[in-house]
Amino acid sequence: MIERALEAVLRKAAEQYPIVTLTGPRQSGKTTLVRMAFPDNAYVSLEDPDRREFALTDPRGFLAQFKSPVILDEAQRAPELFSYIQTAVDEKRKTGQYILTGSQSFLLMRGASQSLAGRVAVLHLLPLSRSEIEGRPPISLTELKRGVASRRAIPEGDLMAALFTGSYPAIHDRGLAPQEWLANYYRTYVERDVRELLNVGDLEAFGRFIRLCAGRTGQLLNLSSLAADCGVSQPTARRWISVLEASFLVLLLRPHHRSFSKRLVKSPKLYFLDTGLLAYLLRIRSPDELRTHSARGAIFESFVVSELVKSAIHRGDEPRLSFWRDSTGHEVDLIIEDGSEAIPVEVKSGETVADDSFSGLRYWLRLATDPTAPAALVYGGHESFRRAGVTVVSWSQL
Fold this sequence. Notes:
By secondary structure, this protein is of the alpha/beta class. It has helices spanning 6-16, 30-37, 49-57, 59-64, 81-92, 105-115, 130-134, 141-146, 158-165, 169-174, 178-198, 203-215, 223-230, 234-246, 275-281, 287-291, 296-313, 359-367; strands at 19-23, 42-45, 70-73, 98-102, 120-124, 250-253, 269-272, 321-325, 331-338, 341-348, 376-379, 385-387, 390-394.
């Protein structure tokens, strides 16, 4: 069993709040985590039709059966319970009474925000990070700024395998073939979740939309172009993107606000949070095919963004990530905000670092009028070092 970084945060939240809500994509390990973190709690899955009917028809009686703290899995399946949970926690005034999980985050959060405001801690669990898979701490902001301590050597070729496999726990726990598992995962998501969330009549159009999004990963989001290519209206495309984002399948990375008196782009960039699913959607069939694929750089960039997002979320923090691009095309792939400090980060998928890899960082630092400020470059090689005042970080250290 792979230890999850969020477990300590989850336990602490249960000591401070009467209700803890854990959301995340399907198969990210939510049920496993809450049952491991709270082994003495009663457990009920509201996917079970009989349990769900009991909860919906007699919510008071359903909740009254639990004399100790309880885990309610897939709680968004019975949103009517939330008002009764509010009454129960207000009467008992104890922490850690209810642990709620759900993979349809905005349905669960809509019910929680309406009925449980002020009583609930909200946490998110994404698929495994590389640090969790390897059983080590993730890179810290201090290391990213000042240099990374040497860690174990990574065999050549592991990067392509890591990108191709992705990070869903079932694949790593059970040693499953990633593309077969991801194909079933994708079909389940489209055929079940999308029907429930959007009542989409044309599943083929939605499937085409997801694959078109995959082809645009790492690019500025152009909804009008995306809608036209898919054959749907722009409002429909906007609604579908919102569902993909709320389901933790994609991330919209917003532009950084600092202008340096220059015109900036205002559109977000689109990323997928799992590179295995992204490779499946792009019909990449092996790690060797990925090595020479035209989307290799965009997939690697998605990987770096995803790892930094997971590192923050699994600490219980909000990711403070953005990108910077002006109207003349100068760009920094990522900006990490650390208090009042903004750390520029470039991402390169190659295994060697050329001098022009630093051009975006140098441009930013000149505009910031502080050439000695922290900056980093994440690349596809296996060594981490300092060069020209920049922390060069191997992908394997994230």
